[in-house]
Design a protein that fits this description.
The chain is of the alpha+beta class. 35% of the residues lie in helices and 28% in strands. It has a single domain, classed as Aminopeptidase (3-Layer(aba) Sandwich). Strands 1-2-3-4-5-7-6 form a seven-stranded mixed beta sheet, with helices on both faces.
Length: 187
């Protein structure tokens, strides 16, 4: 009888990896995150790296990594989601934008979330934080290129009101785009 009760209790327990019990903080990236960001990208699955860069990349080149952790905070902004543990911090998500056209204040954005942390709302938190920073920095339009099979990213973009269309420069990609003018005027 006790064994049956025990097995019944076990079937109702939701088991999650240990990574979910550590607090997650979203903050601006810092130069001392270089090693953690490199480890994050190396830890992404091939599929996630391909979705982020639209190419197969096993590692970020040193010059790109050094540039990624030193955005100017206005025309380039990067936020990271970090888990704090006894041994320090681990990056489990990253989002960034870079102004592509200074006159029109149009910025391209990109986002990546660790495979083990996908599907729990971290992408929403990262994108919301980035959009807030973009609005504060007077970005007029935020856009990104998305692979058509990346349904999770397309759904996230729709949820945040991004328009979607075929990328005119690369028909293999979809372009998601959102005007931030109304949001900026409301602040």
């Amino acid at each position: 009888m006790l064994l049956d009760l025990y097995s019944t209790l076990l079937t109702r327990v939701e088991v999650r990896p240990v990574e979910y019990v550590a607090p997650v903080v979203i903050r601006p990236i810092r130069p001392d995150d270089e090693g953690k960001l490199g480890a994050f990208f190396r830890g992404l699955s091939d599929r996630s790296r391909h979705r982020r860069f639209h190419a197969v990349m096993n590692d970020l080149p040193a010059d790109v990594l050094a540039r990624f952790v030193r955005p100017d905070g206005c025309d380039e902004v990067a936020l990271v989601a970090v888990m704090r543990r006894l041994g320090g911090e681990s990056v489990i998500g990253e989002v960034r934008y870079a102004i592509i056209d200074g006159k029109t204040r149009k910025a391209e954005f990109a986002i990546a979330v660790a495979d083990v942390a996908q599907g729990i709302g971290l992408g929403k938190r990262l994108l919301r934080g980035l959009m807030r920073r973009a609005t504060e920095n007077k970005v007029a339009v935020l856009y990104g290129d998305v692979l058509p099979e990346n349904q999770a990213m397309l759904a996230l973009a729709r949820e945040f009101g991004f328009r979607q269309r075929r990328d005119p420069h690369d028909p293999r990609l979809l372009l998601v785009e959102k005007s931030l003018e109304a949001a900026r005027l409301a602040v």
